[in-house]
Amino acid sequence: MNKARCHNKCSQIIPHRLLWLLVGMLLLCGLASAEPLQDVDLLSRLAKAPTAREYPNDNAVWLLREMEVSLDTNGALTVHEHKLLKLLNAQSLSLANWQIPYDKSAETLAVPVARTLLNGQAFPVEPTQVVESALYPGLAWYDTLMVRRFPLPAAMVGATLEVESTLKRNVPRMSGDLSTRLQLQDILPICEGRFTLRVPSEMHLAIRFTGRQQPKISENEHGGYRVYAWTIRNVPALRLNEPQLPSANDLIDSARVTSWQSWEPVVKWYANLTAEKAQLSDDLRKAALARTEGCASAEEKIAALHKMVRQLPYVAVEMGDLSDTPHDADEVFRRNYGDCKDKATLLRALLQAVGIQSDYVLVRTTERGPLDRQLFGPAEFDHVILAVRLPGGDRFLDATLADAPADRLPPGVEGADALIIRGKGELVTLPLSATADNKTDVRVTIAVKADRSAAGTAVLTYTGQSAVLQRGILSAVTNDQYREALEGTLAPRLGNEVALDAVDVQHLREPEQPLVITVQFSSRAFIQPAGEQLSGYLPIFMYQANRYRSTHTRLLPFQQHIGSTLHEETTVTCPPELPITSIPAQVHFTSPFGEYRDTAVIDGQTIRFTADLTASRGQFPPEMLEQMRQWSSTLALEGRNQMQFFLRRPDKPRT
Comparing C-alpha atoms, which of 544, 608, 570 is closest to residue 444? Predict the structure, then answer.
């Protein structure tokens, strides 16, 4: 009896699967070749390493992240990294499968140290376990991008993974200059981070820290080199589980580094980099002339060629030279895919074929925040479009998204800071669409029957950025799947137990036209008992789930990417057997995030409901969280019974 109890207790403490996992790890330790640790400093660091109790919300913790970036007098760049990662729980064991990407066409990679540290012993990676393969197999353009993978042996909870790597680039991307961004934060916490920048002594670097880390920089000269160094400690993990966050890349604490002293050399560098990329071939010229046949104006030609390019599949890889350099226009045309700069290059060549000149534009998308106009470097930008030279001024074109027409810059690009690659460089803020142009118009008609069922029609018309976003949601949906794709979104907004019977979508692949979705729907129990009365719900298309219910202090900014409007007109007609007794009261409220108003009136046996919502574009600081909670709560109609209206039961006499 006692043995049985003991066995049951052990089963609760160590589940069978975990027990076998631990046994497997112990066997692995026994099989892996071990060597005693001799490094006194490393042993001391491991002895002082934090435990899982100190990081209850993290799977692992970086004990050390060390990076040294060296630029020699010939422009060769070397990045040496040394990392120590302690595993805190079973979920962290997958981190032992290490991988390092690199570009074999211009870079060499060495990994002199790769081992697991446990109980004063080091378990090095077996050379036979190291595998190198293409990072993107099957994509011909990217066949020089490789990834080196290896499993660190004897990895178990409490062990520390140690990896040192050296990446050397002998062919300079930016001859004699440096522009980069170093991440000082990670999704895992960092106990200590050390950073060193080593450049020729005649070079001076501008370094800006973004985020909460503002370390002190040491600067000295040694052996003909200028050395910048700083240390960070106890950096918290970056949490990205909040809604409407800006890009993760710009939320991470970072150091932005550049050696350039003005925008002029940046423009010159990019102009030289792309000088031969938009060359016209006979095939391109023929394609451009064929596509614009019958076009009477420059605007018509631009629209036709933009449509041709934006329909190419978007494939992006930002690594090595591919971070900056587009492929040749003719190559993009033949392979029929590309990223933003590839598409811009192809469009530039096609425009040139019909006599329209354009320039590249480097864009810092709005997700990354405003541009620091005194920090000169291409690393500040993350997108490429075109500025078309027209008699009335520049016309900005972005052919990246298939869902955005020629006369509209996509969300995240409109309103962004940008650098036109022309002359000495022109810094501009890209034009914004008007809030009134980004509209959702909703018209709903519902007929309630005496048996409390209902049937109706909803017509939703999207224009501007609202159409761009909605098209993005539906772009991968085929015609026979529209109903299934929209059921979960639209049906709950239309009322009790609504099912979509038929869905028609017009102009999905024609972004120059408004997107129109027409829905036929029905409900077998649209009207339901509510105490001594009956009730139903008015459609609520401005409804959004309250994503800000959490009472936790918000650490990061949140944003609304576009300014937009929604206008809803709904009529609900009830039979004489079900007299309408009450409707929702009129509401009007404003906030920094927008404005909302509605009204409902009874017209005989018909309820006429109108609602208008304006959402303001902007990025908002964490301190405004409580206001956002209130705004979101009101939009979610909490406390308003979700737009409930009431009817008298047929068996109840009029009072």
Answer: 570
Contact in structure between 85 and 61 (CB atoms under 8 Å): yes
Give the sign of the dihedral formed by CA 527, CA 528, CA 533, CA 535: negative
Greater model confidence, 293 or 21: 293
Nearest CA-CA partner of 440 in 355, 581, 562: 562
**C-alpha angle 515/405/466, rounded to 5°?**
45
Quick count: other Cβ atoms within 10 Å of Cβ 315? Answer: 15
Cβ pair 91, 59 in contact under 8 A: yes
Of the CA atoms within 13 Å of residue 463, those in its CB half-sphere come to 14
DSSP for 411-461, please give it.
TTTTT-EEEE-STT-EEEE-----GGGSEEEEEEEEEE-TTS-EEEEEEEE
In one letter, which amino acid is 571? T
Q: Tell me the mean pLDDT in the region 348-377.
A: 92
Neighbours of 64 (CB within 10 A): 19
Beta-bridged to residue 530, according to DSSP, are 533
Q: In terms of Cα–Cα distance, which of 469, 464, 461, 457 is closest to 516?
A: 461
Structure tokens at 620: 């908002």
**Residue burial 160-169, b: 16+ Cβ < 10 Å; e: rest:** bbbbbbebbb
* 120-132 mean pLDDT: 94
Torsion 190-192-198-202 (CA) sign: positive
Beta bridge partners of 366: none
To which residue do tokens 């870079």 refer?
107
pLDDT value of residue 543: 57
Question: What is the spatial distance between Cα 594 and Cα 617, in angstroms, rounded to a whole number?
Answer: 9
33: buried, middle or exposed (CB in 10 Å: 19+, 13-18, 0-12)? exposed
Which of 542, 544, 557, 549 lies closest to 629 in space, CA to CA?
549
- Looking at residue 340, its amino acid is C
Over residues 426-471, the pLDDT tens digits come to 999 999 999 999 999 999 999 999 999 999 999 999 999 999 999 9
H helices, E strands: number in the chain = 12, 34
Listed residue (415, 430, 371, 378) closest to 250, CA to CA: 371
Mean pLDDT of 292-309: 95
Residues 6+ apart with CB under 8 A from 223: none
Tokens 């492929």 locate to 327
Residue 319 has pLDDT above 70, yes or no: no
Pair 117, 160: CB distance under 8 Å: yes
What H or E segment, with its residue span, contains residue 302? helix 298-310
- Closest C-alpha to 501, from 538, 541, 460, 458: 458
